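[Automated response] Your request has been received and processed.

Submitted sequence:
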Amino acid sequence: MLIRSIKQQFNYAIGKASRTGQSKHSAKAAGTYKPGELYGNETVTAYRDTAKNFSKWLSHNHPEITKVTEITPDHVQSWIDDRSENWTKATLENHITRIKYLEQQAQKAFGKDKVHFYDKDIKRPETKEAARDKAMSHEDFLKLRERMENSRSFAKDALEIAYRAGLRIDEIAHLRREDIDLEKKTIFVSTEGAKNGKERSVPIRDKDLEYFKELLDRHPQEGYLTTVQAKSIDKAIRRYMADTRDEKGQLLSEKYPRETAHTIRKLYATERMQEERGSEPLPDKKEEMKCWDRVSHELGHGDGREALYKVYCKG
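Generated structure:
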């Protein structure tokens, strides 16, 4: 079989390890899980995107490279140095993780002794700082909550739900009364509003039960809690942020530019991690990541997302 381009060679290697019809969880439950294999369409697509990105850069900057076996760590480092200024820190870490995996799969496909382009000592250049990387402090959240106290907008409840359950604004906009189960202490996030169409169940903490009971009392009819669109909810919260200052006098809209719900989701993640393992990271990295996997699932992410852990839980 003739595989002409670098991109095709990478896709061939990825394809041999892809299990798109089965999730990692179902594979583990069935006893068919194999480390190193890719489970689920989303995961496979992410690795193909990195391969496509890197292959395109190679084609443009090093047209003489026609085989995966000709790629060196210097090529990878040059690609990262060239592109990192347009990436966030999380994106950089994701690409590095995938490059390591691509090397492993390319070694299986084309020969372990012939493929070597990943270097564990890859230099991390400066990246653009993402506004998403900043969590809203608990003190700032309380000030914003106080500012919205007399609001009759659903944005007031959206703020509380994001803080208490870590939901995205679009997920909140699609939340139905019947999705909140006080007896089971869960919130069902349907595929309708969930990112990438992945449904999940989020636990309701005991301290938040009273709020959700009161929320349901105010919305006695079955169906959506609001007819307001997600963008309108987001804009409403930002209007209040533009009228709320932190303890140093800085407007929250300037302190947390562009992002609204994500800063609150990160606050939720920070507090949930503290509930899982205490205020400080665990010395055992595996145990720390087990805690993160539980919180990650509540946020709508998968297992082993170390790059996201670094975004959400910067110590």
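Summary generated for your ticket: The CA atoms of residues 78 and 270 lie 35 Å apart. The radius of gyration is 22 Å.
If you did not submit this request, please reply to this message.
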